[in-house]
Design a protein that fits this description.
10% of the residues lie in helices and 34% in strands. A hairpin with a 2-residue loop joins strand 25 and strand 26 (183-188). It is globular and about 75 Å long. By secondary structure, the protein is mostly beta strands. The chain has 2 domains: 2-188, Hexapeptide repeat proteins (UDP N-Acetylglucosamine Acyltransferase, domain 1, 3 Solenoid), CATH 2.160.10; 198-304, no CATH class. It has 2 helices and 33 strands. Helix 1 (198-218) crosses helix 2 (286-295).
């Protein structure tokens, strides 16, 4: 058993497993119960409150979050496995059935009250009723909004969006928009998603950070917004269009639309299109964490880059 002393585990959390690895920065909130043969939770993942996981093998990736009352359980088989990638979000009241391997790729989101089943059976197979056990694979950067039902054997490719309330009974190719009961592909790459032109991307980024100014003010920050060519300054936070634009000296968090911004030591940087984050890190960077959490509302999430 390996549990980092930097993990934050609530007093009433229950963990029952032969092998347990919990990394630094993990948060297990009150009422969470974890049972299995092997459980691995990578750094800065967060579970709970009241998450229930009962599966032979469990892997929860870096910065992945399972919100309130998520359940992952079902009939156990020798290859039962729940494998959630990095920065995955599973929203409240979702039920996952990993009787066969259930894999979710990095950056994907499973909306609240969704149902994902690798096992479909009740009536007797000897009387001709359908019984199915089959793995489910959900790719990278997939979004299943609220109340999506996924049936056994489905494979969903990377960069797929599915409409809320859909039932997915067949596999969906990558780069698609799908909807319906059962879900059908409505659009696919290169027509989906329609990528904005660079000037439009810059205008979108500016709108997001203007919204951030309100959020920072609500947190008690003193925000004095100013703009110039390729720069939006919000006091301790700045947005630049490219690394060629110099941020103000007072900026402690600098986001660049394209490429890694040039920053001084002790400053956190965010590369929006590259989805990367670097510079100052750790629990002491409260402002950076707040900015990163806010822009995640717009689908902007970041891989932390080690610069040591």
């Amino acid at each position: 058993m390996s549990i980092s002393p930097q993990a934050d585990i609530a007093p009433d959390v229950i963990i029952e497993a032969d092998e347990v690895t919990i990394a630094a920065g993990v948060k297990l909130l009150p009422g969470t119960v974890l049972r299995g043969k092997s459980i691995r939770i990578d750094r800065r993942a967060e579970l709970g409150p009241d998450v229930r996981i009962d599966c032979r093998e469990v892997i929860i990736g870096e910065e992945t979050m399972l919100r309130a009352r998520v359940t992952a359980a079902g009939l156990a088989l020798p290859d039962s496995k729940l494998d959630l990638g990095r920065r995955v979000r599973v929203f409240q009241d979702t039920f996952l059935n990993p009787s066969k391997p259930l894999t979710v790729g990095d950056e994907s989101g499973l909306g609240g009250r969704s149902l994902i089943f690798t096992h479909a059976a009740w009536q007797s197979i000897l009387e001709g009723y359908p019984v199915e056990f089959a793995p489910i694979t959900i790719g990278r950067n997939v979004w299943l909004p609220w109340q999506v039902f996924v049936l056994p054997g489905v494979e969903i490719g990377d960069d797929v969006t599915v409409a809320a309330g859909s039932v997915i009974s067949r596999s969906i190719p990558g780069g698609s928009l799908a909807a319906g009961y059962p879900a059908r592909v409505l659009k696919r790459a290169p027509d989906y998603p329609p990528t904005p032109e660079p000037d439009e991307q810059w205008e979108i980024a500016r709108r997001v950070f203007r919204d951030l100014a309100w959020f920072l003010t609500e947190r008690g920050e003193t925000v004095s917004a100013s703009e110039s060519e390729g720069l939006l300054s919000l006091g301790r936070v700045a947005l630049v269009r490219s690394p060629e634009v110099t941020p103000p000296p007072a900026a402690e968090v600098v986001a660049s639309l394209v490429g890694r911004p040039t920053v001084a030591a002790g400053v956190t940087w965010l590369a929006l299109l590259e989805r990367e984050r670097g510079g100052a890190d750790g629990s002491e960077c409260e402002l950076a964490e707040a900015v990163a959490e806010f822009v995640s509302r717009y689908g902007l999430r970041f891989q932390r880059i080690s610069e040591a």
